[in-house]
């Protein structure tokens, strides 16, 4: 699809924050120019477009920059409201609940699993595994409440909270492959385990999420630069 209004997305292929924005654009069937960024040597366009945080993703629309993934997803949903599938729920209560759990996924779940990969000792890694599983337990309960017995957090189709949690699934596979850690198991989180299978089969996920090997190689690159790298470079 041709880029609309000079639409550009500055990103990192394996970043969950970028993945969720690309999935939102995919849902809305919006064409854009994707520009991969080197987060070890940040380019002039990224620094100019996001001078406050200097990180990805950044959506550039009609020459204006929109930063922070959740803000971008909501922007995409509103600007292209008449196109594709709605991302945020229409009901005010459901919308507030989706935003609450999205913030939880980013503030509790994401730092926990990143900590598994970045742990300096086995004891620290075990602690982060515990934090990750605890967060998954909370999201298992949230799925039961938000989905109302339907296939996705948003109901019959993928929505806002599905994108936020779904954008992290790639790295759950990296944890399994590289550290032997299984984040979502049917015995502990049956709702989420079934949801994961459905989510991976959606066109939204298939069109955007890279293969696990790409993410694993990026993690190895980060680990080789560990002395000068930060966790933020893994994500944004």
UniProtKB/TrEMBL annotation:
It catalyses: RX + glutathione = an S-substituted glutathione + a halide anion + H(+). PROSITE patterns: GST_CTER, GST_NTER. Keywords: Cytoplasm, Transferase. GO terms for biological process: glutathione metabolic process; toxin catabolic process. It is found in: Cytoplasm, Cytosol. The keyword Cytoplasm applies. Residues 5-84 form the GST N-terminal domain. GO terms for molecular function: glutathione transferase activity. Is involved in the conjugation of reduced glutathione to a wide number of exogenous and endogenous hydrophobic electrophiles. PANTHER family: GLUTATHIONE S-TRANSFERASE, GLUTATHIONE S-TRANSFERASE, GST, SUPERFAMILY, GST DOMAIN CONTAINING. This is Glutathione S-transferase. It comes from Hordeum vulgare subsp. vulgare. The lineage of its organism: Eukaryota, Viridiplantae, Streptophyta, Embryophyta, Tracheophyta.
